[in-house]
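User: Quick sanity check before I run a bigger batch. Here is a single chain. Can you write out its predicted 3D structure?
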Amino acid sequence: MVPNRHSFGEFLTTQSAQIPLNEFILNMVLAALLAFVLGRVYVKFGSTLSNRDMFAQNFVGLAMTTMLIISIVKSSLALSLGLVGALSIIRFRAAIKEPEELNYLFLAISLGLGFGAGQTLLTVLAFGLIIGVIALKQLVRRKSQKPNFFLTVSSPAGADIDLAKIAEVLAAHASGSLLTRLDETPEAFEASFRVQFVSLAQLETCNRRLRALTSSIRVSYMEERGLGA
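Assistant: Done. Predicted structure follows.
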Protein backbone atom coordinates (compact mmCIF):
# COMPACT_ATOMS: atom_id res chain seq x y z
CA MET A 1 0.00 0.00 0.00
CA VAL A 2 1.46 3.38 -1.04
CA PRO A 3 1.26 6.01 1.71
CA ASN A 4 -0.62 9.15 0.87
CA ARG A 5 1.84 12.00 1.33
CA HIS A 6 -0.87 14.60 1.05
CA SER A 7 -3.18 13.20 3.71
CA PHE A 8 -1.87 15.39 6.54
CA GLY A 9 -1.95 18.53 4.42
CA GLU A 10 -5.48 17.77 3.30
CA PHE A 11 -6.48 17.19 6.90
CA LEU A 12 -5.17 20.63 7.89
CA THR A 13 -6.98 22.39 5.08
CA THR A 14 -10.28 20.57 5.45
CA GLN A 15 -10.58 20.63 9.24
CA SER A 16 -12.24 24.00 9.70
CA ALA A 17 -15.41 25.14 11.34
CA GLN A 18 -17.68 27.92 10.20
CA ILE A 19 -18.48 30.47 12.90
CA PRO A 20 -22.04 31.85 12.77
CA LEU A 21 -21.71 35.53 11.93
CA ASN A 22 -24.53 36.68 14.24
CA GLU A 23 -23.05 34.77 17.18
CA PHE A 24 -19.59 36.21 16.47
CA ILE A 25 -20.89 39.79 16.33
CA LEU A 26 -22.93 39.35 19.53
CA ASN A 27 -19.96 37.97 21.43
CA MET A 28 -17.68 40.70 20.09
CA VAL A 29 -20.10 43.40 21.26
CA LEU A 30 -20.43 41.75 24.67
CA ALA A 31 -16.65 41.48 24.98
CA ALA A 32 -16.26 45.18 24.23
CA LEU A 33 -19.07 46.15 26.61
CA LEU A 34 -17.82 44.09 29.55
CA ALA A 35 -14.22 45.22 28.94
CA PHE A 36 -15.43 48.83 29.11
CA VAL A 37 -17.22 48.05 32.40
CA LEU A 38 -14.01 46.43 33.64
CA GLY A 39 -12.13 49.62 32.85
CA ARG A 40 -14.59 51.72 34.84
CA VAL A 41 -14.31 49.29 37.77
CA TYR A 42 -10.51 49.53 37.61
CA VAL A 43 -10.60 53.35 37.60
CA LYS A 44 -13.03 53.46 40.55
CA PHE A 45 -11.70 50.65 42.74
CA GLY A 46 -8.06 50.30 41.63
CA SER A 47 -5.28 51.37 43.97
CA THR A 48 -2.27 51.52 41.62
CA LEU A 49 -0.16 54.66 41.34
CA SER A 50 -0.19 54.67 37.53
CA ASN A 51 -2.65 56.64 35.43
CA ARG A 52 -5.66 54.35 35.74
CA ASP A 53 -7.71 56.13 33.08
CA MET A 54 -4.97 55.66 30.49
CA PHE A 55 -4.34 52.05 31.48
CA ALA A 56 -8.05 51.14 31.41
CA GLN A 57 -8.32 52.25 27.79
CA ASN A 58 -6.40 49.11 26.77
CA PHE A 59 -9.01 46.67 28.09
CA VAL A 60 -11.54 46.91 25.24
CA GLY A 61 -8.97 46.40 22.51
CA LEU A 62 -7.28 43.59 24.45
CA ALA A 63 -10.52 41.67 25.03
CA MET A 64 -11.72 42.04 21.42
CA THR A 65 -8.34 41.08 19.97
CA THR A 66 -8.12 38.02 22.21
CA MET A 67 -11.60 36.95 21.15
CA LEU A 68 -10.69 37.32 17.48
CA ILE A 69 -7.56 35.21 17.94
CA ILE A 70 -9.43 32.45 19.77
CA SER A 71 -12.19 32.45 17.14
CA ILE A 72 -9.61 32.02 14.38
CA VAL A 73 -7.72 29.33 16.26
CA LYS A 74 -10.78 27.20 16.95
CA SER A 75 -12.07 27.50 13.38
CA SER A 76 -9.05 25.96 11.69
CA LEU A 77 -6.21 23.72 12.82
CA ALA A 78 -3.95 25.04 10.07
CA LEU A 79 -4.54 28.64 11.14
CA SER A 80 -3.91 27.77 14.77
CA LEU A 81 -0.53 26.24 13.95
CA GLY A 82 0.41 29.27 11.90
CA LEU A 83 -0.77 31.60 14.62
CA VAL A 84 1.44 29.91 17.21
CA GLY A 85 4.48 30.57 15.03
CA ALA A 86 3.47 34.16 14.34
CA LEU A 87 2.83 35.01 17.99
CA SER A 88 6.09 33.40 19.12
CA ILE A 89 8.06 36.34 17.69
CA ILE A 90 6.16 38.95 19.72
CA ARG A 91 7.94 40.36 22.75
CA PHE A 92 6.13 42.45 25.35
CA ARG A 93 8.42 44.99 27.04
CA ALA A 94 5.87 47.16 28.84
CA ALA A 95 6.74 47.40 32.53
CA ILE A 96 3.94 46.16 34.78
CA LYS A 97 4.85 47.62 38.17
CA GLU A 98 1.78 46.66 40.18
CA PRO A 99 0.36 43.12 40.61
CA GLU A 100 -3.13 44.64 40.52
CA GLU A 101 -2.54 45.69 36.90
CA LEU A 102 -1.87 42.05 35.98
CA ASN A 103 -5.11 40.98 37.63
CA TYR A 104 -7.15 43.32 35.44
CA LEU A 105 -5.18 42.46 32.30
CA PHE A 106 -5.80 38.75 32.83
CA LEU A 107 -9.48 39.45 33.43
CA ALA A 108 -9.70 41.38 30.14
CA ILE A 109 -7.95 38.49 28.37
CA SER A 110 -10.33 36.02 30.01
CA LEU A 111 -13.28 37.92 28.54
CA GLY A 112 -11.82 37.45 25.08
CA LEU A 113 -11.07 33.79 25.73
CA GLY A 114 -14.55 33.06 27.02
CA PHE A 115 -16.45 34.80 24.25
CA GLY A 116 -14.06 33.49 21.61
CA ALA A 117 -14.71 29.94 22.83
CA GLY A 118 -18.47 30.51 22.61
CA GLN A 119 -19.01 30.32 26.38
CA THR A 120 -21.20 33.42 26.45
CA LEU A 121 -23.41 32.76 29.47
CA LEU A 122 -20.60 31.31 31.58
CA THR A 123 -18.34 34.28 30.78
CA VAL A 124 -21.01 36.85 31.66
CA LEU A 125 -21.89 35.11 34.93
CA ALA A 126 -18.24 34.68 35.94
CA PHE A 127 -17.48 38.31 35.09
CA GLY A 128 -20.39 39.54 37.21
CA LEU A 129 -19.27 37.40 40.14
CA ILE A 130 -15.64 38.55 39.91
CA ILE A 131 -16.59 42.23 39.67
CA GLY A 132 -18.91 41.80 42.65
CA VAL A 133 -16.08 40.31 44.71
CA ILE A 134 -13.68 43.10 43.67
CA ALA A 135 -16.19 45.82 44.56
CA LEU A 136 -17.05 44.23 47.91
CA LYS A 137 -13.40 43.75 48.81
CA GLN A 138 -12.47 47.33 47.97
CA LEU A 139 -15.45 48.81 49.81
CA VAL A 140 -14.65 46.82 52.95
CA ARG A 141 -10.99 47.79 52.78
CA ARG A 142 -11.74 51.46 52.27
CA LYS A 143 -14.13 51.56 55.21
CA SER A 144 -11.49 50.12 57.51
CA GLN A 145 -8.51 52.03 56.16
CA LYS A 146 -9.84 55.18 54.43
CA PRO A 147 -6.68 56.51 52.73
CA ASN A 148 -7.32 59.61 50.69
CA PHE A 149 -3.93 60.36 49.12
CA PHE A 150 -1.06 58.60 47.39
CA LEU A 151 2.25 59.97 48.65
CA THR A 152 5.57 59.55 46.83
CA VAL A 153 8.83 60.59 48.49
CA SER A 154 12.01 60.49 46.43
CA SER A 155 15.57 61.81 46.54
CA PRO A 156 18.91 61.27 44.81
CA ALA A 157 21.24 58.64 46.21
CA GLY A 158 23.47 59.86 49.02
CA ALA A 159 20.91 62.23 50.52
CA ASP A 160 20.45 62.11 54.28
CA ILE A 161 17.10 60.34 54.18
CA ASP A 162 15.84 56.85 54.86
CA LEU A 163 12.57 54.98 55.32
CA ALA A 164 12.68 55.23 59.11
CA LYS A 165 12.74 59.05 59.04
CA ILE A 166 9.84 59.22 56.61
CA ALA A 167 7.82 56.73 58.66
CA GLU A 168 8.46 58.79 61.79
CA VAL A 169 7.09 61.96 60.15
CA LEU A 170 4.02 60.15 58.81
CA ALA A 171 3.33 58.54 62.18
CA ALA A 172 3.37 61.97 63.83
CA HIS A 173 1.50 64.02 61.24
CA ALA A 174 -0.79 61.68 59.27
CA SER A 175 -3.87 59.92 60.56
CA GLY A 176 -2.77 56.70 58.88
CA SER A 177 -0.17 55.47 56.41
CA LEU A 178 0.64 52.29 54.53
CA LEU A 179 3.85 51.60 52.61
CA THR A 180 3.00 50.27 49.14
CA ARG A 181 6.30 50.44 47.30
CA LEU A 182 10.00 50.98 48.01
CA ASP A 183 12.72 51.40 45.38
CA GLU A 184 16.39 51.89 46.29
CA THR A 185 18.99 52.05 43.54
CA PRO A 186 22.55 53.42 43.37
CA GLU A 187 21.06 56.52 41.75
CA ALA A 188 17.90 57.25 43.73
CA PHE A 189 15.58 56.45 46.62
CA GLU A 190 11.77 56.35 46.21
CA ALA A 191 9.02 55.28 48.59
CA SER A 192 5.26 55.29 47.96
CA PHE A 193 2.53 55.35 50.60
CA ARG A 194 -1.22 55.46 50.90
CA VAL A 195 -1.93 58.08 53.55
CA GLN A 196 -4.90 59.57 55.35
CA PHE A 197 -5.28 63.26 56.19
CA VAL A 198 -8.32 64.66 57.93
CA SER A 199 -7.63 68.32 57.17
CA LEU A 200 -5.63 70.52 54.85
CA ALA A 201 -3.64 71.86 57.80
CA GLN A 202 -2.55 68.33 58.71
CA LEU A 203 -1.41 67.72 55.12
CA GLU A 204 0.54 70.99 55.04
CA THR A 205 2.27 70.23 58.34
CA CYS A 206 3.27 66.76 57.17
CA ASN A 207 4.49 68.15 53.86
CA ARG A 208 6.61 70.79 55.63
CA ARG A 209 8.20 68.20 57.94
CA LEU A 210 9.01 65.87 55.07
CA ARG A 211 10.66 68.65 53.07
CA ALA A 212 12.71 69.62 56.13
CA LEU A 213 14.39 66.20 56.16
CA THR A 214 16.75 67.13 53.30
CA SER A 215 16.98 69.86 50.68
CA SER A 216 17.08 67.34 47.82
CA ILE A 217 13.82 65.57 48.71
CA ARG A 218 10.89 65.47 46.29
CA VAL A 219 7.39 65.04 47.71
CA SER A 220 4.30 64.52 45.57
CA TYR A 221 0.68 63.83 46.47
CA MET A 222 -1.93 62.26 44.21
CA GLU A 223 -5.55 62.48 45.29
CA GLU A 224 -7.51 59.26 45.70
CA ARG A 225 -10.66 60.43 47.52
CA GLY A 226 -9.73 63.99 48.46
CA LEU A 227 -10.26 65.76 51.75
CA GLY A 228 -13.76 65.59 53.14
CA ALA A 229 -14.76 62.66 50.84
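The longest strand covers residues 176-184.

User: Great, the batch can go ahead then.
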